[in-house]
Structures are given as structure tokens and as C-alpha cells.
User: What shape does this take?
Amino acid sequence: MPHWIKKWTVWEFLPLWLANVPVYGIYGWFALRARHLFFFSNVNPAIPLGGAVGESKHAILELIPARIRPKTVFIPAGTPFADVERRLSAAGLTFPVVAKPDVGERGFLVKKIDDAEVLRGHLERFPANFLVQEFLDHPMEATVLFYRFPDGSRFGITSVCTKEFLTVTGDGESTVRQLMDRTPRAAFQTARFEREQPELLTRTLLPGQTVLLEPIGNHARGTKFLNANHLIDAELERTFERICAEIDGVLLGRFDLKCASVEALRRGDVLVMELNGVFGEPAHVFDPAYGARRVYRDYYRHWKMLFDLHRAQVRRGVKPTPHGAAIRFVREYFGYKKRLEAL
Assistant: This one.
């Protein structure tokens, strides 16, 4: 089957706007019941709009216990590069690092950077607040989606996802471009590599030589997401309940983390790269083998949990963000993103 057909017929590869059509209906149902378009915004009062869009990654990281945070430096827009280097040195950061905008989602402008000059160019090209974070080479990257009720009556994990990074393996004859063209997951990334790493596409790999194409574990960048819900048990929930008890004002969120092994995950021996708020999806649904029926069933359960948490907060007197303020916040975010995308 040609790759372009798979892009329009395989759920995992559908354009986001199309894949989410049923999700819009699910959201609309609960918004109608709540009588508020932004009903979810009171679920995580510590994060603007509950973490739907436009939240500061740095501010959220500061909510997380220091022992599970990687080395991270906040770089305000326009900081002289000499000051950037001093801040990295003071934090004990060495290359490679990961640079990511303080505000953004789905891998927007996230880049692994191997030296100071590339970092300088990236920061100068995109005049926004950035985080520079240590590049973690732990063998396991995962997401853990949790919820907890404000009265402490219930805690649970609804999604665990592990990741398989995008690679190609040489045959001694084919270029990287030709190897990428053989699978839709890699082929859909070719246009991006033409912009960012055109020289890599022309390389011919030795037989059996494997090259990691994308070190950033984002689905939009070709990473394969795998359903790991079989890991959810009482031990894992106890571990993350202890962690979440130290995070004020967040009732539903998704940890994006790295660790050494499943055993380390169960112990909570992890480093959290990001904590996503209410729009942190149950990432396991992107497993190619999961199936659309189960995908939308799990999205319904996700939004039902947001609605239940919203009602629990209302009973405690915690109200959603007023419509006017929420709309202004969303407009500012999309204006910011549009300006950066034009650069």
C-alpha cells in the first residue's frame, strides 16, 4: 500500500484534526454538561487553563520534587549568549543538551544540540523563552498518566506508554533516504530531514549499521508509541501516588520521563522531563496495534475523568477560568506560536 494512502487510512498517521473529530464530539458533550467551554481548567489550578495550552514548562517543572527533575536552565528570550554559557556551567550542564521552548507542545522547536554554536544559532533564530535541559541517555522512555481526587479518596494511573525511537539499518547499498522510504513512519519524516539534516539523507550505511534518526521521543517526529498498560499495578500506583502527593494543585497530568528499566520505574527512580496537564493524552492509544475503537473508548474515559474531577473541584468552590480570560489566553498562545513558526 502506498504511504500516502496509509496517511489517510491508518489511524496512527491521520492528520491530527481528522483523528480528533470524534474527540471534539466527546469534549462537546462534557462541556455541554458542565455548561462551560473550559470546564477542565479547574482540574489543575496550579497551571493556567489546567495545562491545556500555553503553560510554562519551567513553572510546571518547579512543582515537581527536585530529586526527579533533570538539570534544567531557564533562558529568557534575548539573553546574551555569554550569560547562557555561564548559566549552563553553573548548573553543571554539558553537551549534548535538549533545547525546548518554555511554551509549546508536540515537539515544537525541540532540538537535541551537540555544541555551543548550534545552541547559539537556535536561540538567536527563535526569540522566545527556552529551557535547556540535560540530554538523558537512559534506555527507557515512558509516559505515565495519573489522576487523583482532591479529597484523597481516589488515585489511579490510566495510561503507561513506552517508546521506540526512529532508526534505520543499512544494507551496504541504500542511502538513508532510500531506507527511510521503505516504511511510512520514517518516510513521513523525510521532508523534515531535507530541511534539518539533508547531508544525512545521502549517507550509505554499512550492512547492519543502525543509525538513530530522531532522539526526541515525540510521535510527530516518528517515534513509535507502545501500549504498556500491562505495567499498571498496585506497586506502580503506590509509587506515583507518593510522588504526586508532593505536587500541589495538579489532579490530572502525564509525566514524560526516562529511567533505567521497568524495575526503576516501579521504584520511582526516574527523571521527569515534562509534566503535561489536562491535555496530556493517554499516549498508549498511539500504539499501531491498538485499534480505533479502543482509542476512542479510552479518550471518552479520559474526558469523563476530567469532567468528574471538574465537578469535584466545583463542590470545593474551585471554579473554572472565566470564558473571557480563557479566550484571551488561548489567543495569545496561538499568536505567539504563529510568530515563531514564521521564522
